[in-house]
C-alpha cells in the first residue's frame, strides 16, 4: 500500500493506493492523525486506487468519526470502487462518512456549510 | 562404615596410643639392656609392631585429611607441609637446645630421658615425612593419566609392603635391605618427573613455592642428619636408619622436593607466556559460553573487546557499530569517548593517504578485512581494525590501538580473528535464540487464541421439528473472530446470532468471548432484535479498542407464528430463498456495526425487519470470509456466486447446501485451504 498526502486548493488530499490490511492500516491511521494535528479542516481521501480494505482499515475511518465531528473537520472519501463502496455500505459506515463519487463532488461537499 | 571424621579421630587416637606404647616398650627394653640384672621380657617384636602401627595410623590419618582438601591450591598444600615441618623442627631444635644446656650434667646423660626425647623426635619426623609424602602424591597425580596412576599405586603398595620387612632381622644395607631400598628408590625416580602443577603457578606463586620448598628441604636435611647421628646409640632401640620404608620415603621426598625446586626455578622466565595463553583460553571460553549465560549483544561486544585487548596487549579499544543509534552508548576500553572522535579522524587520514597509493578506499566501517595501520596521533601510533560479520552482514568493527607503531604482528592478528569469529558465533546464536523465543511466544499465543475460539463456538444447535439447522466454521491459521450461536428462549422461540469481530489473534478471541457473554445474557430475557442490538452495542462499545468493531445479525424465530424478526448490525446481509417464488434474495436492511457509535445516537441506525416463512424456505447466514475469498487472480468470490449456489441447491437439505457452498469456494480459490476464516449457518423450514 502507498499513501501520499498533498495540499490542494485548501484541501488536504490523502491518496490511498493498493490494499489496506491490518498492517498497512497503521499508516493510514498516521496520515489522518497528521492531517488533524496540522489543523486541516478539509480532508479528502482519494480512494480511486484503493483496491481492498479490511476491517482494520474500516476501523481507522470509524475511529475518527467522533473526533472529526467535535473538531468540525470535514472529511470526504471519493472514487471508491463499487466493491469497496459496498464494504462501507454493509457495515453502515456510509451513513456516517461523507462518500462521493468524484473529486469535484468531494471538494464541493468538503466546503458545504 | 566409619564417617570421615570418625576415621580421623580414630587414627589420631591410634597414632598416639602406638607412639606411647612404642616409647614405653623401647624405654623398658633400653632399661633391660643397660641393666643386665633386670629381665622383664618384652620382645623386640612388640616395638616393631608399635612402630609399624604408628606409621600406618599416620598414613591413614593424612590420607583422609588430604582427601578432604580437594579445593586447596598448590601453594596452600606446600604451606601445610611447611607448617608441619616448622613445628617438628622447632620442637626438635628445642630438645637439642635443652640437651646442650644440660650437657655435662647427669641429667643429659640419663638414658631414660635421652630415649624419651629421641622418641619425641622420631614421632615428629615420621609425622612430617608421611604428611609430606602424601602431599607429594597429590602433586604427582595432578592431571594424572591412567598409566601414571598405576605406577603410583605400585609405588605406594610397595612402600606399604616394605613395612613388613622390618619384622625380619636385618642390618642396614645388607643385600635384601639394599634390594628393597633400590626398588623403592627406582619407583620414586619414575614418578618424580610428574611436575605438571608447576606450570599452573603464576609468577608470584612460583616464587612462594621456591621459598617453601627450599625450607622443606632444609628441614628434611636436618632430620636426616639427626637420624644418622642417632643410629650409633643402640639403647634407643627403634633405629630409623635401619628402616627401609622410612629411608625410601625420605629419599623420595627429598628427590621430589629438589626436582620441584629446579623445575620451578627454570620455569620462572616463561611464566608470563603461559599466563597469557591461559588467559586467552579463559577469554575464549567466556566468549563461547556467553550466549548460554543469556548475555545480550552489547555484553558480547564488551567481552570481545576485553578479550582482544588483553590478548593483543592493546592500549585502548572501542567497538564501532555499523548502525550507530546512540553515540553515548559507545563501548570503549581504556579510552575516552572524546578521543574516539580524534582517532576516527586520524584513521581516516591514514587510510586516505594509503588509498592514494593502492587505490583502496577504506574507512573504519567500510572495510571487510582485518586492517593494520600506523596512524598519526599524539598518543596512539598503530591501529588494528577487525570487521565483525554475522551471517554475511557486517555489524560493526572492533578498533584496537597501541602506543607503539607496528604494534600488531601476525600472531596478534590471528588471535584477534579467532576471538572475533567466536564473538560472531555468539551474536548469531543470541539472535537466533531471540527470534526462536519470539516465534514460540507468538505461536503459543495463537494456540491459546485458537483454543479459546473453538471453545466459544457451540457444539450443538438448538432446533425443533419446524426447521433443520446446520453450521460450519473454518478457523484460519491466524485466528479470526467469527461467531455463531443459538439459544432456545421457549418451546417455539429461538434466538440466532452470527457475527464477526474485527482483528485477529488473541484480541479477536477475547472480543468474541465478550460477544458470547452478551448473547447468552441478553438472549434469555427475550428482547426484540432491535433492543438486543442496542444493548449489545452499549455493552460491547465499552470494552472494544478504539479501532475495533463487531458486526452481527440477530434473529428471533417464532415457529408457532411462523415469523422471523431480525436486525442487522453491519453484518453481511443474509440470503433468503422463497420457495413459492423460487427466488433467492439478500435480506437488505439498514444497520450499523457495533462499536462504531458508542452512545445513544446508535439507536437511530437500528432497524428491525420481519418476514413470515413458509415450508421449504431457506435462510443462509454467513461471514465475510465467504465473500472475500480470493482466487489466484485476486478476484473476490463475491455475493453473486454465493447467491447462485444457494439458488442451485435450494431444494437440497441444509447439509447439502452447506457442502455445495464449501465446494464452490474450494473450486473458486483452487486451494484446499481457504486463507481467511469463514462461517455459514443454514436453516431450512419444514
Spatial extent as radius of gyration of chain A? 13 Å
Q: Label the structural class of chain A.
A: alpha/beta
E-strand count of chain A: 5
Number of continuous helical runs of chain A: 4
Biggest interface found:
A-B, 18 and 25 residues
What form of chain B results from the Cα inertia axes? Answer: elongated
CATH homologous superfamily annotation of chain A: STAS domain
> Which value, in Å, is the CA radius of gyration of chain B?
48 Å
The structure class of chain B reads alpha+beta
Question: How much of the polypeptide of chain B forms β-strand, as a percent range?
Answer: 5-15%
**What is the quaternary state of this protein?**
heterodimer
Low-pLDDT windows of residues of chain A: none
Number of folding domains of chain A? 1
- The residue-averaged pLDDT of chain B reads 86
Proportion in helices of chain A: 40-55%
Q: How many DSSP E strands of chain B?
A: 15
Quickly count the helices of chain B: 19
Helix proportion range of chain B: 40-55%
The biggest beta sheet of chain B is recorded as:
5 strands, antiparallel
Amino acid at each position: 500500500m502507498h499513501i501520499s498526502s498533498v495540499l490542494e486548493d485548501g484541501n488536504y488530499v490523502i491518496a490511498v493506493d493498493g490494499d489496506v490490511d491490518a498492517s498497512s492500516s497503521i499508516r493510514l491511521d498516521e496520515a489522518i492523525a497528521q492531517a488533524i494535528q496540522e489543523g486541516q479542516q478539509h480532508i479528502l481521501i482519494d480512494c480511486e486506487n484503493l483496491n481492498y480494505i479490511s476491517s482494520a482499515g474500516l476501523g481507522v475511518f470509524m475511529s475518527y468519526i467522533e473526533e472529526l465531528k467535535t473538531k468540525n473537520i470535514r472529511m470526504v472519501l471519493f472514487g471508491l470502487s463499487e466493491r469497496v463502496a459496498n464494504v462501507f455500505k454493509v457495515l453502515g459506515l456510509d451513513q456516517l462518512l461523507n462518500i462521493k463519487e468524484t473529486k469535484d463532488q468531494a471538494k464541493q461537499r468538503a466546503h458545504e456549510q | 562404615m566409619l564417617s570421615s571424621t570418625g576415621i580421623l579421630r580414630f587414627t589420631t587416637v591410634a597414632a598416639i596410643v602406638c607412639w606411647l606404647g612404642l616409647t614405653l616398650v623401647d624405654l623398658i627394653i633400653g632399661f633391660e639392656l643397660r641393666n643386665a640384672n633386670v629381665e622383664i621380657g618384652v620382645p623386640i617384636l612388640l616395638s616393631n609392631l608399635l612402630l609399624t602401627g604408628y606409621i600406618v595410623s599416620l598414613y591413614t590419618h593424612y590420607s583422609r585429611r588430604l582427601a578432604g582438601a580437594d579445593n586447596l591450591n598448590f601453594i596452600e598444600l606446600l604451606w601445610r607441609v611447611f607448617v608441619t615441618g616448622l613445628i617438628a623442627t622447632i620442637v626438635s631444635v628445642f630438645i637439642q637446645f635443652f640437651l646442650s644446656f644440660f650437657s655435662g650434667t647427669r641429667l643429659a646423660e640419663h638414658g631414660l630421658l635421652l630415649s624419651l626425647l629421641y622418641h619425641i623426635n622420631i614421632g615428629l619426623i615420621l609425622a612430617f615425612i608421611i604428611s609430606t609424602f602424601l602431599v607429594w602424591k597429590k602433586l604427582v597425580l595432578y592431571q594424572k593419566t591412567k598409566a601414571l596412576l598405576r605406577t603410583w599405586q605400585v609405588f605406594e603398595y610397595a612402600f606399604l609392603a616394605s613395612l613388613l620387612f622390618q619384622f625380619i632381622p636385618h642390618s642396614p644395607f645388607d643385600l635384601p635391605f639394599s634390594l628393597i631400598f633400590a626398588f623403592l628408590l627406582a619407583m620414586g625416580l619414575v614418578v618424580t618427573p610428574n611436575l605438571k602443577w608447576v606450570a599452573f603457578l603464576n609468577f608470584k606463586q612460583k616464587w612462594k613455592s621456591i621459598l617453601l620448598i627450599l625450607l622443606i628441604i632444609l628441614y628434611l636435611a636436618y632430620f636426616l642428619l639427626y637420624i644418622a647421628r642417632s643410629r650409633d646409640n643402640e639403647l634407643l632401640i627403634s633405629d630409623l636408619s635401619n628402616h627401609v620404608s622410612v629411608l625410601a620415603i625420605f629419599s623420595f621426598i627429598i628427590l621430589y622436593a629438589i626436582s620441584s625446586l629446579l623445575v620451578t626455578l627454570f620455569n620462572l622466565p616463561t611464566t608470563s607466556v603461559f599466563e597469557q595463553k591461559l588467559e586467552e583460553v579463559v577469554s575464549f571460553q567466556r566468549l563461547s559460553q556467553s550466549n548460554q549465560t543469556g548475555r545480550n549483544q552489547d555484553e558480547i561486544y564488551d567481552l570481545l573487546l576485553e578479550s582482544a585487548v588483553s590478548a593483543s596487549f592493546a592500549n585502548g579499544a572501542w567497538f564501532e557499530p555499523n548502525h550507530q543509534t546512540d553515540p553515548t552508548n559507545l563501548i570503549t576500553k581504556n579510552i575516552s569517548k572524546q578521543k574516539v572522535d580524534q582517532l576516527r579522524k586520524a584513521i581516516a587520514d591514514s587510510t586516505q593517504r594509503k588509498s592514494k597509493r593502492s587505490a583502496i578506499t577504506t574507512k573504519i566501517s567500510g572495510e571487510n578485512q582485518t586492517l593494520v595501520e600506523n596512524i598519526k596521533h599524539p598518543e596512539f601510533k598503530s591501529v588494528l581494525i577487525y570487521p565483525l560479520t554475522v551471517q554475511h552482514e557486517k555489524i560493526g568493527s572492533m578498533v584496537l590501538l597501541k602506543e607503539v607503531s607496528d604494534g600488531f604482528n601476525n600472531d596478534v592478528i590471528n588471535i584477534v580473528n579467532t576471538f572475533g569469529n567466536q564473538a560472531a558465533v555468539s551474536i548469531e546464536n543470541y539472535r537466533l535464540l531471540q527470534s526462536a523465543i519470539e516465534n514460540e511466544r507468538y505461536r503459543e499465543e495463537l494456540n491459546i487464541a485458537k483454543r479459546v475460539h473453538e471453545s466459544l463456538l457451540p457444539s450443538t444447535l438448538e432446533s425443533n421439528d419446524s426447521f433443520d439447522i446446520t453450521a460450519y466454521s473454518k478457523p484460519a491459521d491466524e485466528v479470526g473472530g467469527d461467531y455463531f450461536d443459538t439459544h432456545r428462549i421457549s418451546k417455539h422461540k429461538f434466538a440466532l446470532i452470527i457475527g464477526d469481530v474485527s482483528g485477529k489473534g488473541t484480541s479477536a478471541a477475547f472480543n468474541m468471548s465478550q460477544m458470547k457473554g452478551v448473547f447468552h445474557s441478553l438472549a434469555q430475557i427475550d428482547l426484540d432484535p432491535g433492543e438486543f442490538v442496542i444493548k449489545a452495542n452499549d455493552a460491547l462499545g465499552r470494552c472494544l479498542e478504539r479501532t475495533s468493531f463487531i458486526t452481527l445479525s440477530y434473529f428471533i424465530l417464532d415457529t408457532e407464528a411462523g415469523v422471523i424478526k431480525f436486525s442487522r448490525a453491519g453484518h453481511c446481509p443474509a440470503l433468503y430463498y422463497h420457495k413459492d417464488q423460487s427466488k433467492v434474495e439478500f435480506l437488505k436492511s439498514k444497520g450499523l456495526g457495533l462499536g462504531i457509535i458508542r452512545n445513544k445516537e446508535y439507536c437511530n441506525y437500528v432497524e428491525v425487519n420481519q418476514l413470515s416463512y413458509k415450508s421449504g424456505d431457506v435462510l443462509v447466514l454467513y461471514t465475510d470470509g465467504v465473500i472475500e475469498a480470493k482466487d489466484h487472480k485476486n478476484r473476490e468470490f463475491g455475493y453473486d456466486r454465493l447467491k447462485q449456489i444457494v439458488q442451485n441447491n435450494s431444494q437440497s437439505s441444509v447439509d447439502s447446501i452447506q457442502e455445495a457452498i464449501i465446494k464452490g469456494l474450494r473450486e473458486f480459490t483452487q486451494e484446499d485451504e481457504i486463507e481467511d476464516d469463514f462461517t455459514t449457518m443454514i436453516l431450512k423450514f419444514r
